Model the fold of this input.
Amino acid sequence: MQVVNKSLERPTPSAGTDPIVVEGLSKTYQVTDREGGFGAAMRSFVKRKFRDVKAVQNVSFRIGTGEIVGFLGPNGAGKTTTLKMLSGLLHPTSGTARVLGFTPWERNSGYLRAMTLVMGQRNRLSWDIPAADSFLLNQAIYRISDADYKRTFDELNELLELAPIIRKPVRNLSLGERMKCELAASLLHRPSVLFLDEPTIGLDISAQVRIRAFIKEYNRRSGATIVLTSHYMADVTALCERIIIIHHGQLKYDGKLADLSRRIAPFKLISVTLGECSDCDLTPYGTVVPSESNEASAKHSVQVKADEVATITARMLAELPVIDLTIEDPPIEDVIERAFHE
Amino acid sequence: MFILKLLSTYLKVNLQQDLAYRADAIVNMVMSIIGTGWDLLGLSIIFANTKEIGGWGPSELIALMGVWRLVNVMMATIVWPNTEKFNTGVRDGSLDYTFLQPVNSQLLISITRIVIWRAFDLAIAVILIIVGMTGGNVVTSPVQIVAFLALTISGAAIIYSLWITLISLTFWFTKFDNSVTIMAALMDAGRYPAQVYPYWLRALITFVIPIAVATTVPLQALRGELVDLQILGFLAIGVAAVIVSSRVWKAGVRRYSGASS
Amino acid sequence: MFAIYKQMWLVNWAEQWQYRANLLMYLAFWLVSPIVYLAVWTTIASAQGNINGLTAPDFVAYYMMLLIVDIATSDITIHIFAYKIMDGSLSNELVLPIHPVLQKVLVNNLAFKALQMLALVPIWLILYVLYQPVFSITAVNVLLAIPAIAFGFLLQFFAGTTITCISFWTTRAWSISDFYSNIFRLMAGQFVPLALLPAFMQTASQLLPFRLALYFPVQLLLGKLSIEETMLNIGLQMVWCVILFMLFRVVWRTGLKKYSAVGA
Done:
C-alpha cells in the first residue's frame, strides 16, 4: 500500500477507523543475571541464569486520528517497549495491534512508509555526514519524488529553520539542532502516525519549547496521529489532551489529562497569605504542603479533599487573619506521581 | 532500478564524506602502494631461496597476490566499514532505525558505509593479476579466463555471505560482535597457495573461512587445473552461500524483534 | 602504590574475561601469520633439504617459539587508546588520579597478554603434537629471557604509545601504525628468520631496534646466542627503551597541551 499524500494537509479518514488499536499487548523478556567479579564470570560461563521480565502486560487502548497522546510512566515502566512494538521493532509475546490497518511487526513496507519512530536518545542521522546528505538517503529509501521532497523539505524548513544547520556534519551540531534534523529526517516521507520517544530529552528549555511548538503545528497541519513519551511534564501539558499512564507494564490510566486529578487525586490546594499571626497552626485544616518560598514568607498551602474545599475555606476565613486566599488544582507532576504509586 | 538509485545515492553521499578526508585518502593510497612493494619484497625474499613453492612460480604468486587484493578491496570498501557501523548500531541502538526503513535490511547494512577510495586498490590488484598472468609461460585460453572471472565473483560472494552470517550471529550471541575479526585474521592465509599449508589449515580456509575458495581456486582455474565439474561445483556453492546467508540474516532479524525467542 | 595496580589488574582481568569470545578472535590474528609463514618456509625447506643451512625442523622450532614471544612482547595501545583521543573520551580519564597510559593502558596490555597466553596454551600444545619441534632450552637462557622479553615488551609499548599519541594531531595514526607493523614484519623476524634476508636488509635489521623486541628473545630461547651477545642485546634494549620513553613523554606532553587547548 502506498500512502499518497501530496501535502502536510490531509483529509481526515472516515470516523470509526481508529489508526491505532491495541488489544491485550504483552511482552516478556528473558534476561541473564550476572554478578560482578571473576568468579561470577566463570560460573556464568558454565551456567546461565535466566529470569523473565514482564515489560508490558495486557495493555489495550485505541487512539483516534489526529490525537496527540502522552504516554507516561516512570523509567522501566514499559513505554519504550510498547512504542517499539507499535513501530514494528519488537514482536509481542501475546496480544494484537493494528496501526493504520497493519500489524506493525510484520513490517510491511507500506506500513514503514506511513509511520515514523523518533527516539531522542538514539541517532538516526549518521554522525559523520551533514544532515542534508542523510535527507537525500531518506529520499531514496522512502522513494520520495523530487517534487514531494522539495515541498516537504520547504515546509519543514519553514517550521524548524533547518537551512543554516543541515550542511554541517551532524557531530558538530548542538543537541537542539540535532533534534531538529532528526525530526525533519523522520518526517520527510510524511508519516501519518508518529511515535516520539523522549523527543526533548536533554534539550535546554528554549529548544524544548521550539520542538514542542513544532510538534503541535505539525499535528495541526497534517492531522497526523502522535504518541509521545516524555519526562518533561511541560511537553505533556502543552501537547496532550489525553494521556495513558503505564506502570510496571500495566495500564494505570487512560483518559483526559484534565480528568486525571479528579480521579486519581481528588484534592485541591488552598493557598493563604496570612497577616500578623505568630502561632497560627494550619494542620487542623488539612495536610500542610511545604512551601517552596523561604520560611519568612507568609504564604502557606494546605491540601484538602475536593468536596471539603467550601467548608474548610469558610473556616479558615473565619478563624485566621487571611489577607489573600486562592484555590488551585495540585500540580500535574504530583498527580501523576500519585498515579504511578496508586 | 530502485536498488540502483539507492546504491548511487549511497555512493554519492559516501564520496562526499571521503572527499572531506582527501588527505587521508591520499596517505592511504600511498600506504597501499608501499604495502604492495613490501609484499613484492616478501615474495622476492621467498624466491631468492627457492624456484617454486607448492608447484607455483613467482609470476603465479604475483597473480595470486592480485586476486587476494581483489578480495581485500571488497573487505576494505564494504565489509569492514559496515561491520563497524553495524556494531555501533547494535551498541547504541541506532540499528533499530535500519529495521524501520522500507528497504531490505541486509542490503541497507551492506551499503551504509562505502569507503570508495579503497577502490584504488582495485587498480593495483588488476595490474598484479595482468603482470602475473603475462609473466609466466602458461598459455591461458579464453575459457580459462571466463572461469577465472566467474570463480572470482563467486568466491567474493561466498566471503560476503560468510560476513553476513557472522554478523547475524550477533543477534543470538551478543558477545560475539567481533567474530568478523576471524575473517580478517585468516585473510593473510590467502596470500599463498592453499596447497602449501598443512591439511588442517587448508581445510580451515577452504571450508570454514573459505578464503582459499576466493583466491587459490580462481587461480587454479586460470592455470587450467580444474575440471568443468569442479568449476560448476564452486559456482553452485557461491549461489547456495548467498541464499543461505540471507536466510540466516532474516532469522537473526526475527530473533532481534523477539519473534522467535 | 602496588595496591592500585593490583585493583586495576583485577578489574581489567574481569572486564576482558567478559570478552573472551572476542579474545579468541584476536588470538587468531597473532596465530595465523606465524603459522602461514611456518607452512611456507617448511614447504620450501623440505623441498630443498635446507635453506642457508636452516632445515624444516629449525623453522618449526623458530616459529613455535615466535608464537609465544610475539604475544609476550606485542603492544595493543593503538587499539585501546587512539579512539579515546579522537572522540574526546580521554577527558574522562584525565580527571582520574592515575596515568591514562603509563598505568591504565599498561595494565590493560598486561591483562590482555595474560588472557592471550592462557588461550594460547591449548593451541600451542596441539601444534606441538602436530609438528613435534625440538627445543634445546637451558635454565640460563630462560632466566635471561625474562628481562629480554620484559624489555622487548617495554620497547614496543613505548613505540606503540608514541605512535598512538600522534592521534592528538591527525587521524592518520592508524596508517603510521600499519606502516610500523609492516616494517616490523620484515625487520623483527616475523616473516622469516633474519638470517635469510638479503644482505642489505640484514644490515638494516641489525641497526634498527625492531629485532630486539622479537628476533632477539626468540634466538635467545632457541639457544643460538652466547652470554656476551645476550648481554649486549639486553643493554641495547635498555638504551632503546630509554630513548623511546623520552620520545613518548615529549609527544604525550605536547599532545596533551594541544588537546586541552582545543578543549576536547
